[in-house]
Structures are given as C-alpha cells and as structure tokens.
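pinning this so it doesn't scroll away 📌
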Amino acid sequence: MNEEIKKFLIVMSIVVSILSPTLLYFIIIFWIIFAPLFKSNNITTKKTTSKKKLKSVLFNKTSDLEFADTLGGASDDDLLDLIIEDELKKINIDKKYNLNNIFKKKLIATIIFSFINFVFLASIFFHFPFYKYILEIINIIVYIHFMRKFNIVNYLKKEIKSRPTENISYIISSMVTGNICYINNVLVSFVLISFSFVIACFTFYNPHILYEKVDGGYYVRFYTAGITNYETVTIPETYKDESVIGIRGNVFKDMIFLKEVSLPETIEVIRGSAFKNCSSLEKINLPNKITEIKGNTFEGCSSLKRINIPDSVTRIGGHAFYGNYSLSSVSISKNSKLGEIGSSAFRRCSSLKTITIPKNTSVNERAFKESPTVVNRYGGIYE
C-alpha cells in the first residue's frame, strides 16, 4: 500500500475515533435542549380515537374502582394519560407544568447534570482518556430517563393507581390545587445546561499551566489546552521566581492537536508518558540538563520526524519512541553519554533507516524491533 495512503488512513481513523463520540455527545445535548421546544402539543389521531373510546367506557362505569380494573395493560396506561390530561384541562392546567415537588426534583437533577456536563467539558481540555465519553453518555441517558419519568401526568397516574377506590377527578384536583409550579422546566433546563457550556468555555478560553512545588523549584503538574491555542505549548523558565525543573508524567498525554512544544533549558526531568499519543506533535526541543528519556515519553507521536538527543542523556527508556512512524532522524553526537537503549524504544519506527550511537551504548535486543533501522556506532562499528 502506498505510504501516503497509509498515512491518510491512520489520520482518518484517529479523527473518526475522536470526533465520533464528541459529535454524538453534542447531538444528544442539542436534542435534550431543543427537542422539547419543537414538540407539538397536538394529540395524534390514534390517541384521539382512543380518547373517544375511553370516554364511552368512563361514562358507563359506575365507579372509578371499576374503571381502574380496566387499566392493566400498556394501552390502558395510554388511556389513563388521556383522562388525566382531560381532567387537567377542566381545571385549566397545562400538562407542561409541574407540581412544586416535581419541579424541585427536576431542578436538582438538572443542576447535577449541568455540573457533570461541566466536568466532562473540562476533561476534554485536560485531555483525559476517551472512556469519559461512555460515562457522559450514561449520564445523559439517566438524565433523560429521570426527566421523562417525573412529569405531572406520570406522577398523577402513579397516585391514581395507588388509590383505586377514590374518584379520579378528586385525586387530581386535590393534588394539583395550589401545588402548581408555573415555571417552564424546559427553559430552566436550557439555561442551566447552556450555562455549563458557557462557564466551561470561559474557564478554558486560554491555556493554563498548573505547577507543583518540589525541592529546587517547580514541576509542571497539569496543562489544560485552551480554545485560543491548542497547537503550541511554551513552558516558561520560572514560576514565582523559581526555576521550572520538571514535567510530570501524562501532562500532555492524548493532546492530539498539539504540534509544537518549547521547553526551557531549566528542565531536568521529563516523566514517563509525558507526551504519549500526541499524534500531531512535529517539533520539540529536549533541554541539555535531562539525563533520561523515560519509558513511553514519546510513544505514539506519529508526526514527529526528527529528534535531537542531548549529550547529557544516559538512558532511553522502553517504548520511549514506540510507534513513531514518521521519525526519520535521531541525532546523537559522538560525545553523548548515552549508555542504554531500552526494550522497544524505537519499535515500529518505520521511517527510521539508520541511527548512529556511541560505541559503548548497550542496546536491548528488542529496541528496534519491527523497524528497518541499521544501527551504526561511532568508530566504524555497525549492527
């Protein structure tokens, strides 16, 4: 298969895997917010027919108990819905309104959902793993079920079934009178859910770096991408007048849109998986003070084409550059202190044809597995 086609398929698979759950999420959210606004209040022809049948049954029954006995199946539930709607109309109450206690429950549910929605949106900027989509979809399903279950018709229907010997009209009027909340629940939901979107976008409008105090300075602990800039990262030399000396593991993991990273020379430590799966990363400088490229640090950085290994590095850990398909140039000088290249460090680096390393560097037998790499050593030795 042509190399360009391979690259295209890889890129498209990544885009689809990321955007599909994201688009699904926003489609569902859009439906939750706007669908009720377009919902017709007209009763369908089927329900109208059922309504006529129901009235003939209702007016021929001598008691509500006798009528309640006919409400055993699902179709009877639909008929009971129509009775309740009729009774509500008689007292000039629209079924779109809620009882006060129902509204409170829905309000609490919407507040909780809006908060979880904010957390989910925040996790996108924190680039957490994609299983968060599954959790959010479960959250949406639970919310929809709750909002549909707790409405005035279902609430009254449940109450009527629990009191089969009492008059239906009396049950409805006694429960509804003075207990109606005229606040539009759809509007409240729209405002709260939209507010969670606005707050998330406002909070993460610009990128943020969160630091952790350690002996000798600060580590970069978290990094959140921003709407204004999600392609480049520049880490400053100092924070609160002290040097920034390290980057914690997973800080930039899964930032698929990140293309360029600029690190200060004050950085001494980069923890494992710090840039794992940054599939768009094309350029990064490694400071001259780091002594080890830890395991999985650049795994899955499939757009990275070249990297310069500082002379101070003594070890390249396992899977450090695993799956870097575009990596074609690894610069290691003859003055390098590199002593070890770990297992699968350059595995599946299909564009890396040659590499030159110091003559005393230990190379794990699996370091270049599934890579077409010829390993040369300074002094004319090659493997």
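📌 and the second one:
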Amino acid sequence: MIVGVPSEIKVDEDRVGLLPVVARTLVEAGHTVLVEAGAGVGAGVADVDYIEAGASLVTTADEVFAEAELIVKVKEPQAEELSRIREGQVVFTYFHFAASAELTRGFMDTGAIAIAYETVRDNDGRLPLLIPMSEIAGRMAVQEGAKYLEKPQGGRGVLLAGLPGVAPADVVIVGAGVVGLSSAKIAAGMGASVHLVDIDIHALRHAEMILPANVSTYMSNSYNLERLVPAADLLICAVLVAGALAPRLITRPMVQSMKTGAVIVDVAVDQGGSVETMRITTHSEPVFVEEGVLHCGIANLPGGVPRTATIALNNATHPYVLKLANQGWEKACRADRGLAYGLNIIRGKVTHRGVADATVTDFHPLAFDTLSTAAAQASD
C-alpha cells in the first residue's frame, strides 16, 4: 500500500501525522511511504530522517494525495485539501465532524473513507488515539490559564499557587475525564485550590483517590455550577461526548457572574465547546474578552508543543496505521471493532450516530459483522 504524509496546513499546526520510526515499520512491511518535503520540520524532524527510514520525499501535497491510498494526518482536511482527496481514498486523522456540518458535507462529497482518531475505541471502550492529546491539552490548559491570569496579559493578576499569607487561586474544572484529571493534577501541583466537577460519581471517586487534598469534587448540576463559576479565577471546561457536540454547560449569565479578569479555557471547543460565549481562537491570537472575562478557545491546543504531541500521537496511532496498511481498511475494521468505531464517513454516507445528529445528516448504521456489505451499500 502507498501511505501518504502531507504537511499540515491548518493555522499554527506544526505536528506531523507520521514519524520516521513508523515509516520504517511500514517500509519493512513492504509498503511505500510518501512524505511531503518539510512535513516534519515543525516537529523537529528533518527530511533526511524520513529518507534514512526508507520513505520517499515528494515536493508537493498534490503528489501525496494523488498517489497515496492511505493518507495519515493530524488535523481535519482544510478546504484546499478536500479538493485533493480522491474517491475511495482512506484518510486517517482527527476530524471532529460534529462541530462542522460544512466539513462533514465537504468530505461526503469526496467519496472517500474517513477514519477519525477521536472515535476509535480499544477493548475497554477507551479512546486510545484521543487520550494522549487530551493529556497534553489538560496540562496546557492550566499553563495557558496561569499565563493569562497575569495582569500584563489582561488577567486579574493572580498567582495560581498563592504564597504564605495569600490564598491560592480557585480553579474550577468541569469534567473529570482524561483532560480534567490532567488539568487537576497540574493545577493542584502548582498549589491552586481546585474544584473538580463531573456527572459521574465513580469518576469523582477515582479522582479523589489519585489527586491530592487540595482538590475538592462536586457533582455536576446547575446548582453547583452557579455557586462555583462566580468564584473561579480560572475555569477549565473539559467535557467530551465522543464524536458528538460537547454539551453547553456554561451559560452567558454564568460568565457574567465571574470576576473581571478571570480566565476560561474551553478544551472542548473543537467539538463545539461547552461555553456559550466561547469561539475558536488560535495560538497566534489565543484570547478575547467577553463579559469582562478572558476566553481561550485554541482548537489545537497540543499543537503548541508539536514535538511532544507528535511523539505521543505516533505512539498511539502506530499499530493502527500498520493494520490499515497491511490489511486494508475493510479487513482491518472487520477484525478490530474498536477501529471500526473510527469509521465516520464511508463513500458519502455518515456511519457515526453522533456526527449524523450534530450535522443533521442521514445516519447509516455500520454492520460490524458484515462490514464489506455495509461498505458496498454505502457506495450505492
């Protein structure tokens, strides 16, 4: 199989979909790897590293998309990339279709197969390709929040840790999943007073067992949120519904109740966001002020640390890329139901319920045991 690795062209995105170590494994298995020249530079990977791994360099993205049967990326295809994607081509990347009906319909029009990192599951129902980026995003959310709480950045002028005789900052984290636990770990380690909120009592029980004593846990409901949010110096929203839009939990009146110069970081913004007043921002222009509160909605937060993020992502995607190349997408997905959960669109048909509901498109359920039949029906 020919596996293609284009440069990422989304704003402020320097990660690369495939590292030389994965390229070598693919080449040793008899596959061809085409890498766009310069694709890895932002993540600290030189072209010569790919050549030494046995990959072939091509000059343009057009060549990658024209020749590859499997495209391995990091972020969702941009408009100019959609025009390059061919019917029947497999694209393996983060899509976050639920947040964009335009992207969903644009990809449907290509006739290609979309396998989304964010909805692939393992045998325990976890999201193995989302977890590493969630861990990074959770850690970075605290870093970003701490930075923008500084007065020169427009914040309240509050130090997360406090110091003797000065109370620490109050950090409210909504969601006790991977992102939330990662945020709580860092915020607590910095000495903040952390308030962790979730709808799942078992998640809160687990959090209490592994986190230090300066983390308090609360059930997520409107009563608790209306008490906690006004007191927050830093509010981190870390709510995920796999493949679907994030629930809108923080209303404008809640934001209006916050202190002037407080900071909100919405990690779920790439899935639509949990804050009514939030919009997507970039690493170049990371914050805006609404209702006197600094809003940070960087959709590709891990892209700020492309070296770390690329290694972490490739550690997770490596075995799946090899499966897809060795077996083809149909056989690989039929043999691995968790990988099949990553199938979001097959030849113009949406096969993920969350995506269909969020983008108001017809849902075509996937018959796991007869995947080849389902795929054939989807091409009708």
